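User: Can you recover a sequence for this backbone? Please restate the input before giving your answer.

Assistant: Of course. Working from this structure:
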């Protein structure tokens, strides 16, 4: 039994488990690990979603969510790449230092494009993440707009100072470059997140392209991100 706080995000797709299951395979790229979900009905040219913190999402049952959203016709059948482990780095380094994430993406994207025959249309390619994962998603859409044309960024750490190593991602740099390539954005943040909420409001105001922005009654928590993830996928890849 659980309680739902008023104003908390709804949880579409998480509350049943009777939909036909999609396929799931795991693959290593050196010391990096990813899991690839293929929705029932996904065909050549299917949309692609790259989602960070993939291992945590698998523990939370994301395949059930994806099965349900697809079966209910809310999301187009897609290939979803769940990035679990980025090299040998700790999470915050893997998500913020190019020397860790760039080699993985350089191998991963061509492999998925060839092996699963996913779309090469950036408008149907979503990069998604939470907290620092949202920062990396924003960076990738800004620097590779020919590949990533849609961003689902939740409770993004636009406050991140990026001062540990040269080249490290920095929230202020992403905010300053917000009015760049016309990428579709779905942004959300909790009303209890303080600096995170302030940074997301600043990003919302800086963007001039297509944007969906939501604030929910909650904090920096996967319990909130579950509902926002479902809503974001529905907005970006409607069935």
């Amino acid at each position: 039994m659980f309680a739902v706080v008023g104003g908390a995000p709804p949880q579409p797709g998480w509350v049943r488990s009777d939909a036909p299951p999609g396929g799931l395979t795991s693959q290593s790229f050196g010391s990096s690990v990813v899991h690839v979900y293929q929705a029932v009905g996904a065909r050549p040219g299917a949309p692609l979603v790259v989602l960070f913190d993939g291992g945590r999402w698998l523990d939370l049952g994301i395949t059930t969510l994806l099965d349900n959203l697809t079966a209910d016709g809310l999301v187009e059948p897609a290939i979803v790449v769940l990035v679990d482990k980025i090299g040998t780095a700790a999470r915050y380094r893997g998500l913020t230092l190019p020397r860790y994430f760039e080699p993985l993406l350089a191998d991963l994207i061509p492999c998925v494009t060839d092996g699963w025959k996913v779309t090469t249309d950036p408008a149907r390619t979503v990069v998604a993440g939470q907290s620092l994962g949202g920062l990396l998603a924003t960076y990738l859409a800004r620097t590779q707009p020919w590949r990533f044309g849609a961003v689902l960024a939740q409770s993004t750490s636009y406050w991140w100072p990026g001062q540990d190593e040269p080249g490290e991602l920095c929230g202020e740099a992403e905010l300053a470059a917000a009015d760049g390539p016309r990428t579709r954005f779905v942004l959300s943040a909790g009303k209890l997140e303080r600096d995170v909420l302030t940074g997301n409001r600043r990003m919302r105001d800086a963007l001039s392209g297509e944007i969906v922005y939501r604030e929910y009654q909650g904090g920096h928590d996967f319990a909130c991100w579950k509902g926002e993830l479902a809503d974001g996928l529905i907005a970006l890849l409607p069935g």
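That completes the design. The CA atoms of residues 194 and 206 lie 19 Å apart.
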